[in-house]
Amino acid sequence: MDNLQKVLWQEVLTDLKSSVTKANFITLFQNTSLESFEEGIATVSAPSMMIIDMLQKRFSEELKEALEKHSGRAVSLLFIPKAPPSNTTQKDGPLFTEERQVKPFIGHLPRVRPDYTFQNFAVSGSNQLAFVSASTIAKNMGQIYNPFFIYGPVGVGKTHLMHAIANDVYQKNPERKIVCLTSEEFTNEVVDAIRTNDTARMKKKFRSSELLLIDDIQFIEGKEKVQEELFHTFNFLIDNGAQICLSSDRPPQEIKRLEARLSSRFAGGLTVDIGAPDLELKTAILGIKALKYGASLPNEVALYLAEQVQDTRSLEGLLLRVITQATTMDVPISLELAKKALGHMIEEKRTHLHADDVIATVCDYYQVKTTQLKGPKRDASLVKARQVCMYLLKTELDITLSEIGNLLGGRDHTTIMYGVEKIHALVENKARIHEDITGITKLLQR
Ligand code: ADP
Ligand code: MG
What we know:
This protein has 446 residues and is an alpha/beta fold. It is built from 21 helices and 8 strands. It folds into 4 domains: 79 residues, DnaA, N-terminal domain (GMP Synthetase, Chain A, domain 3, 2-Layer Sandwich); 167 residues, P-loop containing nucleotide triphosphate hydrolases (Rossmann fold); 73 residues, Helicase, Ruva Protein, domain 3 (Orthogonal Bundle), CATH 1.10.8; 90 residues, Chromosomal Replication Initiator Protein Dnaa, Chain: A, CATH 1.10.1750. A 5-stranded parallel β-sheet has the order 5-6-7-4-8, with helices on both faces. A 3-stranded mixed β-sheet has the order 1-2-3, with helices on both faces. The protein binds adenosine-5'-diphosphate and magnesium ion. Magnesium ion (MG) binds next to helix 7.
């Protein structure tokens, strides 16, 4: 925290002190800090998930108002957990603290990424429930929510949270038996075991776990033998008080060709979804990633990068590109540099795509005919597909509104402008359409 930030936070706390009860103040606010305050995004840290949860549910309005009053600008709030005090700091000074988040686990938990921790997870409205639930699960393994089922579109942090559970449990007790794998790896193990006639070993491995995490469970669709094995493993583990965590791109009941007995098991614990991140969350994620690479990322650059992609997964790639460029040129990261580093890529995207591809892909995605899309009918589902198409033609190809109008059956440019703006607003606010756009964009990139 720099000094100005400290003063600002002190003023905010003084306000809150007079408006909340003393007990609330001491338990909830006393150990919070303002970690950063840039471009109107205030990142506030608190000592535990419980506290973050309460602050967010009960006091985010008050905090926001107080911050706005004292800073004189609009503020968005982001809560992150405070890194626990390191016991190495006293002995070795701050040199050691930088590595603390990563080092202890390396090489210990197979298939688990050591940097996917709760500490490295930025929390905001779209993922708050998932975050709080995951950290609660890690603290109360097998006791409250079993299984824990987390779902959401690509790149929203499902794998990150699953690994964070594993890392957290492992960090507190390295003796616990943790098995973490993707459903493809699970499938391979089952298939191999059957092929080599050695199912006993495989059964023992899974059934002796205290924490079993299977990522992207939707891929067991239609695989009967694998489902059967999972069903038995599942029952065995739950009966023995082990914790099961599953992730998927959709809720259990929407996984097709999944045995009913299994989907009802999946839904029998706690099911939470993660929505698409908004701009602020993407910016915060970039901040965390930059820290990991030891890069100093100005906020305007983070915002610029965050605006370029819908999908969180691409963020790290973009960031790396910028960092590499800065290192190669031996200059600090700036907006100018970032634009240069990405310019090439953005142009590349445009020259490859053709308007017909966009139209065909959208039609395919929404299961409508091109003639319907270009035609006059105004059924709700048709209008949606049409407007999404307008939006993508504008954002992906950057052609004029009149050109888009011509491509879509001779529509007026004001109609196109309305459609583009409508979807743009929806993308900002609604996860569902956002998912559609991400899905279609992915298809276009193939
Ligand atoms: P999913 O499994 O949902 O497709 P991932 O967990 O692989 O998504 O996340 C994609 C990338 O974005 C990872 O690098 C992950 O660390 C990062 N990420 C996603 N959400 C967050 C978050 N809230 N805080 C920090 N990093 C995040
Ligand atoms: Mg994943």
